[in-house]
UniProtKB/TrEMBL annotation:
Molecular function terms from GO: ammonium channel activity
GO cellular component labels: plasma membrane
Family: Belongs to the ammonia transporter channel (TC 1.A.11.2) family.
Transmembrane segment boundaries: 31-50, 71-96, 111-130, 137-155, 175-196, 217-235, 247-271, 283-302, 308-327, 339-357, 377-399
Designated name of the protein: Ammonium transporter AmtB-like domain-containing protein
Organism: Macrosiphum euphorbiae
Compartment(s) where it occurs, according to its Swiss-Prot or TrEMBL record: Membrane
PANTHER family: AMMONIUM TRANSPORTER (PTHR11730:SF6)
InterPro entries: Ammonium/urea_transptr (IPR029020), NH4_transpt_AmtB-like_dom (IPR024041)
Length: 458
């Protein structure tokens, strides 16, 4: 009798320990997603600094406000509609049918929701660089809501939901080369096409020069994006408690760096050889090439060897340079080169996955079927993004909501839309035509003087 009681107690202790271990695993997986989601959210800081440094001083407040609000506007749209369309279940091949506004969603999915929401916000943020310095603020709100709430979630359902049709035909994209970057890059190109170039950007007589105003901001933003990218790719596994998870995450993080390294080597060699650009050591072109290299490895970053990741990044850099040259010649004004970086890197990332994983296509009999599936996936994502973007930005353009007026663009969006300048400007005080430090009349901000000069010239 005592032996039976002892056996029962031991069995209960074992079961309790197993339950505790399972609970601990769930908690660790949740914290893995939450912590890495927070790190990925710092990419918003990176985008904010990068974009702010690449635009004129008169548009910095506008850029910063957009990047801050991305996190909050996208949170609402992804909670109301996006997560349900992406991962709501219901057995549909094309979109989810449950969890809208969080209804019926188990609390155990909050960690997954948070990590996926940050991805949705990233997809929407990328577009802001393509329409910088002339986009109306109401248009920004519209496209952020639609992209994070509809366009991206449906594509992510296709590729990552267990019910998704692309996943079922064998499409493989570990951390979003197609689902995030190809989609966002395509939307960016369509947005830039519909909104038109900045004032005088492609003028045949005297084209306006649009150069960034702060290289330190650009550099800071790039470094933050690189750090965020490591969690973006590493945590895409979704868990850390299964056997081998640590190896996969570490490999993904290392390969993210190696992808950027391959691109960096190529751009520096080509620039030094005088094959690209005017500078022999270009700064802006180098950072975009590096970002493109990191985007390029997203598709198979968990499976690449380090050598393969370097090769993928190198080829991605070539694709970036081609698109960086082609897009302006199509008279499409993309200030941050989002099409070259994200469309180019994303498309190549989807194609590269079957060519370089598991020994490469020459040693892997599964490469050709996977290549077929990924090409179908890439084409579907491009078509979906083009159709959605054409409807969205076409609607905004028809109703004159997409772009600010020429006068507001010349003055600058900081003053014309927000009445808050990013940088203090010394005021000029006059009285009866002479400088006076006592009784003064404030002459308007320097950008308003520029606007007045343009108006008088017309």
């Amino acid at each position: 009798m005592a032996l039976n009681i002892s056996s029962t107690v031991i069995l209960n202790d074992i079961m309790t320990t197993q339950l505790d271990l399972e609970e601990l695993k769930l908690n660790i997986d949740d914290m893995f997603l939450v912590i890495n989601g927070i790190i990925v959210s710092f990419m918003q800081v990176g985008f904010a600094c990068l974009e702010a440094g690449c635009v004129q001083p008169k548009n910095v407040t506008n850029i910063l406000m957009k990047n801050i609000l991305d996190l909050f506007i996208c949170a609402i749209s992804y909670w109301l509609v996006g997560y349900g369309l992406a991962y709501g279940g219901g057995g549909c091949l094309y979109y989810g049918k449950e969890f809208f506004a969080g209804v019926g969603m188990p609390s155990s999915q909050n960690g997954v929701w948070f990590f996926q929401y940050v991805f949705a916000a990233t997809a929407a943020t990328i577009i802001s660089g393509a329409v910088a310095e002339r986009c109306n603020f109401i248009a920004y709100i519209f496209y952020s809501v639609i992209v994070s709430g509809v366009t991206y979630p449906i594509a992510s359902h296709w590729t990552w939901s267990p019910d998704g049709w692309l996943l079922k035909i064998g499409y493989s994209d570990f951390s979003g080369a197609g689902t995030v970057h190809l989609l966002a890059g395509t939307c960016s190109f369509v947005a830039a096409l519909f909104i038109g170039p900045r004032n005088g950007r492609f003028s045949t007589i005297a084209p306006n020069e649009y150069n960034g105003h702060s290289m330190p901001l650009v550099a800071t933003g790039t470094l933050l994006l690189i750090s965020g990218f490591l969690s973006f790719n590493g945590a895409s596994l979704g868990h850390i408690t299964k056997p081998g998870d640590g190896v996969i995450v570490a490999n993904s993080v290392a390969n993210t760096i190696f992808g950027g390294s391959g691109a960096a080597v190529v751009i520096l060699i080509m620039a030094k050889a005088g094959l690209v650009g005017e500078s022999r050591w270009p700064f802006a072109m180098t950072i975009n090439a590096v970002l493109n290299g990191m985007v390029s490895v997203c598709g198979g970053v968990n499976q690449y060897t380090h050598f393969s990741a370097v090769m993928v990044g190198m080829i991605g850099c070539i694709i970036y340079l081609v698109l960086q040259w082609v897009v302006p010649r199509l008279k499409v004004d993309d200030p941050l080169e989002t099409t070259a970086v994200h469309f180019g890197g994303g498309l190549w990332g989807v194609i590269a996955t079957p060519l370089f994983v598991e020994g490469g296509f020459w040693n892997n009999p599964d490469s050709m079927p996977l290549l077929k599936s990924n090409l179908i996936g890439a084409g579907s994502i491009i078509v979906w993004s083009v159709v959605n973007s054409a409807i969205l930005f076409g609607f905004l353009r028809v109703f004159d909501l997409l772009r600010v007026s020429k006068e507001k663009e010349i003055i600058g969006l900081d003053m014309s839309l927000h009445k808050e300048q990013a940088y203090p400007v010394t005021n000029i005080f006059i009285e009866n035509g002479h400088k006076n430090s006592n009784k003064t009349t404030v002459i308007r901000h320097a950008y308003d003087n520029v606007a007045m000069q343009h108006t008088l010239q017309q």
